[in-house]
Design a protein that fits this description.
Elements: H1 3-10, E1 21-25, H2 31-41, H3 48-56, E2 60-66, E3 79-85, E4 89-97, H4 106-120, E5 125-131, H5 135-144, E6 147-156, E7 164-172
Parallel strand pairs: 4-5
Antiparallel strand pairs: 1-2, 2-3, 3-4, 5-7, 6-7
The structure holds coenzyme A.
C-alpha cells in the first residue's frame, strides 16, 4: 500500500478527538469483523459475498484500525471503505464506521485517504450514491465538499414497500 494513503491520517486536518489510526488493505480474514459492523449500521447490509466479490474484482478496499501498540497488537476495525476505479474517476461503493466510533472524524479521515488515492491514480472525479433518507451521510458528504448532482429513481431495495431513490453526489477531488 502507498505510504501516501496513510499520510492523510497524520496530517493537520484530522480532528483532535480522533484516535491515531492506520488504513490497511482489506483481507479475506477481515470480512467477518467487517460484516459485524455492516450488519450493525445498515438495515440492508452487504452480504459476505459482496465483500469477497469486490476484493476478487480488485476494487479499492481498506479497513481502518487504531494504531497497534505493544499492549494491543491487534486492534479492532473501526471503519472501512470500498471503491471502484474507472477512467479518470472513482466510485465510492461503501463507507462505514462502527456505531461506537461514529462522530469522531473517521469518515473524514477515510475520505481524505481516498482523495489521496484518487490523485495518485489520476481520478479527478469522485462519485457516490446515498439513500435520500440517509440525512446523516448526506450531511457528512456535503460538509466534505460533495455536491448533490442528481437522483437515481428506485436505486435501492427497502425492507418493505417501493424501492428508494438514491442521491447521486460528486466531488471534484482537490489536486
Ligand atoms: C456516514 C458515516 C460513514 C459518517 O461517519 P463518521 O465517522 O461518523 O463521520 P465524521 O465523524 O467523519 O463526520 C464527518 C463530518 O460530518 C459531520 N457530521 C457527522 N455526523 C453528523 C450529523 N449527524 N449531522 C450533521 N453533521 C454531521 C461531522 O461534524 C464532520 O464534519 P466536519 O469534519 O466539518 O466537522 C457513519 O455515520 C456511518 O457509518 N453510517 C452508517 C453507514 C452509512 O450510512 N454509510 C454511508 C452510506 S452512503
Amino acid at each position: 500500500m502507498s505510504a501516501l494513503l496513510n499520510e492523510a491520517l497524520d496530517g493537520p486536518r484530522g480532528p483532535q478527538s480522533a484516535p491515531a489510526t492506520r488504513l490497511q488493505p482489506m483481507q479475506l480474514a477481515d470480512v467477518p469483523e467487517v460484516l459485524t459492523i455492516e450488519r450493525e449500521v445498515y438495515a440492508l447490509p452487504w452480504s459476505e459475498g459482496n465483500f469477497i466479490d469486490s476484493m476478487a474484482a480488485g476494487y479499492v478496499a481498506y479497513v481502518l484500525r487504531p494504531v497497534p501498540s505493544l499492549r494491543e497488537p491487534k486492534t479492532p476495525i473501526l471503519g472501512y471503505f470500498l471503491a471502484m476505479k474507472g477512467f479518470e474517476e472513482m466510485h465510492l461503493l461503501n463507507i462505514s464506521v462502527a456505531a461506537a466510533a461514529q462522530g469522531q472524524g473517521l469518515a473524514r479521515q477515510m475520505l481524505d485517504a481516498l482523495c489521496r488515492l484518487c490523485v495518485e491514480q489520476n481520478c479527478p472525479q469522485l462519485w457516490l450514491e446515498v439513500r435520500l433518507s440517509n440525512q446523516r451521510a448526506r450531511e457528512v458528504y456535503r460538509r466534505y465538499g460533495f455536491r448533490e448532482v442528481g437522483v437515481r429513481r428506485g436505486y435501492y431495495p427497502v425492507l418493505q414497500g417501493p424501492r428508494e431513490d438514491a442521491c447521486l453526489m460528486s466531488l471534484a477531488v482537490p489536486q
